[in-house]
Design brief:
The chain has 237 residues and is of the alpha+beta class. The protein is built from seven helices and eight strands; from the N terminus they run H-E-E-H-H-E-H-H-E-E-E-H-E-E-H. The strands form two sheets. Strands 1, 2, 4, 5 and 6 form a five-stranded mixed beta sheet that branches. Strands 3-8-7 form a three-stranded antiparallel beta sheet, sandwiched between helices. Helix 4 runs antiparallel to helix 5 and helix 4 packs across helix 6.
Length: 237
């Protein structure tokens, strides 16, 4: 027990000190490549996962708990978003869409569904825009200062065997493999789900579906409406 207190006291003091800023050392990530479908020799067919220092992850976990509680209690996330939402999951998103499609069938209507998936989604986050959206959520000045410190000055390098690349700044994106990355990305695209005007949407993080039910007599109008919504989504991007 004495050993635990010996470790706990300075660690607790450390986290009190970094309430408004994050140690630079904690912002250096080692990136490992996890193969996706395709040619593993092609960098584009690998998912970059950031390995962050242990204390950095502990710090993120503390911030994540408070941030998600704030989003949940104040209903800040879109009702169409199932990612990073309490009591929601990929199954919930799929069941919601399936239920709507079955309802359309019962009403003798046709359904038009457009699946959408963002390429390099986590890597394309603009930090300035994200901070602006966090401000619009109503975060306190001290919380905004913390997130600014979290996002700014990140570095990453790649290690393969005993060879380590040069560390380069991370000017865009949120680290994949981080605790806060997924929920920050969810905030970043939160307003995207309100862009389409003629449809229903369902989303799990960056995996979205745009769908519309209609009678066969208005097929041309329905296609025009969906195309109009897709153009608005492209403008948002």
């Amino acid at each position: 027990m004495d050993d635990v207190r010996t470790l706990l006291d300075p660690t607790s003091s450390l986290f009190v000190v970094i309430i408004t800023s994050i140690n630079v050392v904690w912002k250096i990530a080692e990136v490992v490549c996890v193969p996706k479908d395709g040619d593993i020799g092609n960098p584009c067919d690998n998912r970059p996962i950031s390995l962050l220092p242990v204390l950095s992850k502990v710090n993120e976990r503390l911030a994540h708990k408070q941030f998600v509680t704030f989003l949940d209690h104040n209903d800040k996330l879109s009702q169409f978003q199932s990612g990073n939402c309490k009591c929601h999951s990929t199954q919930m998103a799929l069941l919601s869409v399936t239920d709507e499609l079955l309802k359309a069938m019962d009403e003798k209507k046709i359904s038009l569904l457009v699946p959408m998936d963002m390429s390099k989604a986590f890597d394309s986050v603009n930090h300035a825009i994200l901070l602006s959206k966090l401000r619009n959520l109503g975060l306190s000045p001290s919380a905004l200062e913390w997130f600014n410190s979290y996002l700014k000055g990140m570095y990453q390098h790649v290690q393969i065997g005993n060879i380590v690349s040069q560390s380069l700044p991370l000017d865009y994106g949120v680290p994949q493999g981080s605790i806060l990355g997924p929920v920050l990305f969810t905030v970043y695209i939160n307003d995207l789900l309100s862009v389409p005007e003629h449809r229903q949407t369902a989303c799990y993080v960056d995996d979205s579906k745009l769908y519309l039910k209609f009678k066969t007599s208005v097929l041309s109008d329905a296609i025009s409406a969906v195309n109009s919504d897709l153009r608005e989504i492209c403008r948002w991007c």
